[in-house]
Every structure is written in C-alpha cells, then in structure tokens.
Amino acid sequence: MEELVRRARAGDGRAFVELMEGQKSTMYKVARSYLHNDADAADAISEAVLACFEKLDTLRQPQYFRTWMVRILIRKCQDMLRERKRSVPLDEIAEAGREDPGHARVEFLALLDSLDEKYRTVLLLYYGEGFSVGEIAQAMGLKADTVKTRLKQARAGFKMIYEAE
Question: pLDDT tens digits, residue range 119-151?
Fold first, then answer.
C-alpha cells in the first residue's frame, strides 16, 4: 500500500484509484455504521475520497494511509449527522420495516445499530476491519486506553442486547 500512496502522491491517478478500490469495503462499513443508510454512506464516502485526493500531499507517513483515510471519513460522517440533526424521513422508516428480519446479517446489523455510535464504531473497526487499538485511537482522535475501555463496554453492551433478543 505504501508504494501506491507514493505513486498517487506523485500524480499517478491510476495508483490513487487502485488505492481507494482496496479501501472501499472498509469505507462502506465505517460510513454505514455512522449513517445507517446506503445513500448517505455513499455521499460520505464520495466526499471522503475527494478530500483524500485533494489532501494526499498532507499525509506525512504513507504507512498510515488507511488510518488517515478513515479519520477523514469519520469527520465527513459526523458533519453529515450534524447537518441533518438525526432526523429520519418517514418513508425511510417504512422501508426499513420491509426488510426480512430472518437473515442473520440484518439481525446482526440491527443489534450493532442499537449500540451507541462510539461503541459501534470501535467494534466495527476492531473486529470488522482488523484495526489495532492504536490505529483506532489515531483515527478517532482518542487515547488508546479510551479505545480499550470502549471495546470492553461495547462487548458487554452487545452481549446484553444479544442475550435479550
């Protein structure tokens, strides 16, 4: 990945596209965990990709590209949440009710969505994307001990919700 970052910084557009293609799954999961719907997640991802492209020269250490990119995406998601002030149109609620709750993935996402955002994000990054505690701390602007505490609390909260179902 470091070589792709170097090539992209040198103006190689194909290297940047390849770099972002490799991160699309991570970006989708992070954006979806914050915004709860595909359309908003896609908007946040596109804004983050553009910001990454425009600011790639500000990345000091290419080995931290992934953490840097996730941090930008998280900020874009938080900006979107502030703008819409967490209002949800009624047609979106109706559409969510039409999903088949029998699928394990839908149930898992519903359980995950029931957690507070700060816990949901650390669980997703740690277990879903394989980020280390240090990488999560850097991406979210937290101390490593705070991330560890949130992981512990998130696991306990997830277990409690799962057992209640």
Answer: 888 888 888 788 889 988 888 888 999 999 989
Locate tokens 């991570």: which residue?
26
Q: How far apart, in whole angstroms, are the C-alpha atoms of residue 15 and residue 43?
A: 22
Give Cβ neighbours of residue 2 (< 8 Å, ≥ 6 apart). Answer: 62, 63, 65
* Tens digit of each residue's pLDDT (9 = 90 or more) over 72-111: 999 998 888 888 765 555 555 445 545 454 456 666 667 7
Taking the C-alpha atoms of residue 148 and residue 155, their distance in angstroms, rounded to an integer, is 11
Rounded Cα gap, residues 87 and 40, in angstroms: 13
The CB density around residue 63, as the number of other CB atoms within 10 Å, is 11
Q: Which residue in this structure is represented by tokens 């965990």?
A: 33
User: Residue 141 — left, alpha, or beta (φ > 0 → left; ψ -120 to 50 → alpha)?
Assistant: left
Dist CA 73 CA 70 (whole Å):
5
